[in-house]
């Protein structure tokens, strides 16, 4: 799989360019089908991009935001990716579809969330961990082998179980946007760009993949 790489001198330039790319994808999708579906990841890196989007002319009335992954924690726990999304888009009419990690039957909840997903995502935003994980697809977890469910649960990882989109869902997206910052990501980024299957991120096989990175600026 081929990745397009665009490098930026700092995180702010990265965020602005990423926001502009998402906006362009949204406009194309709305023009083609009348709707824009996007799945967003959590973490520190995309927060600045979310701020750019919140102040943009994104076609909010035609946009639906889904979660790539979520920690199974209490509703008000700041570790929730949903908290970041709600804060970032509090001032715009964002339609955010939260992963139902509060349910007692998490497997059933994952199935229900999967059934509510669009046929394909116009865009999926992914991050990259120093250990090569993306979404909540950690090294060595059985979730890496799930092929028959669009959404699944992980084993405990860094203290929490997680709900995540699976490889078939990610691979079916029209476009994948990776945001990568931080010097500790350099090795994982090198492996991602080679689609090295030794890391979970290297196994994503989307039809169109753009990697935006400021790693070189922080090395």
Write a structural description.
It contains 7 helices and 10 strands. It has a 7-stranded parallel sheet, covered by helices on one side. A 3-stranded antiparallel sheet has the order 4-8-7. Helix 1 (11-33) crosses helix 2. The protein is of the alpha/beta class and 219 residues long. It has a single domain, classed as Rossmann fold. The two termini are 26 Å apart.
**Structure summary, number of beta strands:** 10
Please give the count of helices. 7
Question: In CATH terms, what is the fold-level topology?
Answer: Rossmann fold
**Can you tell me the CATH architecture?**
3-Layer(aba) Sandwich
Report the helical percentage.
Answer: 25-40%
Please provide the ordered H/E string of secondary-structure elements: EHEHEEHEHEEEHEHEH
Task: Spell out the blueprint of helices and strands.
Layout: E1 4-7, H1 11-33, E2 36-40, H2 47-54, E3 63-67, E4 69-71, H3 81-88, E5 95-97, H4 106-116, E6 123-126, E7 151-153, E8 162-165, H5 167-171, E9 176-180, H6 186-193, E10 209-213, H7 215-218
Parallel strand pairs: 1-10, 2-3, 2-6, 3-5, 6-9, 9-10
Antiparallel strand pairs: 4-8, 7-8
């Amino acid at each position: 799989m081929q990745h397009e790489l665009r490098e930026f001198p700092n995180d702010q330039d990265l965020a602005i360019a990423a926001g502009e790319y998402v906006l362009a994808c949204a406009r194309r999708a709305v023009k083609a089908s009348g709707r824009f579906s996007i799945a967003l990841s959590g973490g520190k890196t995309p927060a600045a991009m979310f701020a750019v989007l919140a102040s943009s002319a994104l076609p909010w009335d035609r946009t639906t935001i889904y979660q790539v992954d979520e920690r199974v924690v209490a509703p008000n726990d700041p570790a929730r990716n949903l908290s970041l999304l709600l804060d970032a888009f509090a001032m715009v009419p964002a339609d955010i579809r939260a992963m139902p990690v509060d349910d007692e039957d998490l497997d059933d909840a994952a199935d229900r969330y999967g059934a509510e997903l669009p046929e394909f995502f116009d865009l999926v935003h992914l991050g990259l961990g120093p250990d090569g994980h993306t979404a909540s697809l950690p090294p060595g977890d059985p979730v890496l082998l799930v092929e028959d469910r669009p959404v699944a649960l992980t084993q405990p990882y860094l203290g929490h179980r997680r709900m995540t989109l699976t490889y078939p869902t990610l691979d079916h997206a029209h476009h994948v946007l990776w945001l990568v910052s931080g010097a500790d990501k350099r090795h994982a980024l090198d492996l991602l760009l080679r689609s090295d299957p030794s890391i979970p991120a290297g196994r994503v096989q989307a039809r169109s993949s753009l990697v935006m990175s400021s790693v070189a600026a922080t090395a």
